[in-house]
Amino acid sequence: MKRLAIVLIVTGLSGCGSGDMDDLHRFVAETGKDMQGKIDPLPEVKAYEPFSYAAFDLPDPFKPRKLSTGGGGGMQPDLTRPKEPLEAFSLETLKMVGVLSQNGVNQAVIKTPDNAIYHIKKGNYMGQNFGLVTQISDSEVTLREIVQDSAGDWSERTSTLNLQE
């Protein structure tokens, strides 16, 4: 039985190897005849020219600038006053989640990124730009911020923190 199986396999394989493959060889020869690889020349390498950094008298753009108490304009923040807790957070990360009214005074309920809750009223500070709370309504807190521009001058801007639903 084994011999019969071996004979059938050998006979089957011998039929596979003896075929007419001249047309295949002719096709490969004709197709490859027209194809020739073309390699672009290497680009010319430019000589290295060292750069001499001579701007040692200019301020380093990678070091943070310190807030200066002297600067242009008459408006400046009070850098000597003690910071309030909400001044540690940027205004974009704080959320107004409610308003309380007690004895006719509105107090805003502010939630910090670490989920702490603070009550603020008019005259408190919040945000990192010396933001003084100037008004609290049912839907928003209005702040007056004092920011320093690239020339060192201080300017005032108004920002609002809207009630989050």
In words, what does this structure look like?
The protein is an alpha+beta fold and 165 residues long. It has a domain at 85-162: SH3 type barrels. The strands form two sheets. Strands 4-5-6-7 form a four-stranded antiparallel β-sheet, with no helix packed on it. A three-stranded antiparallel β-sheet has the order 1-2-3, with no helix packed on it. It contains two helices and seven strands; from the N terminus they run H-H-E-E-E-E-E-E-E.
Question: Which key features would you list for this structure?
Answer:
3-stranded antiparallel β-sheet, 165 residues, 7 strands, 4-stranded antiparallel β-sheet, alpha+beta, 2 helices, SH3 type barrels
How is this structure best summarized?
By secondary structure, the chain is of the alpha+beta class.
Overall 3D shape: elongated
Largest sheet entry: 4 strands, antiparallel
- SS element count, helices: 2
Q: What is the H/E order?
A: HHEEEEEEE
What distance lies between the first and last C-alpha atoms, to the nearest angstrom? Answer: 86 Å
Poorly predicted segments: none
Helix content: 10-25%
Q: Kindly report the CATH topology of the domain at 85-162.
A: SH3 type barrels
Residues in β-strands, percent = 25-35%
Computed over alpha carbons, the radius of gyration is 40 Å
Strand order of the largest sheet: 4-5-6-7
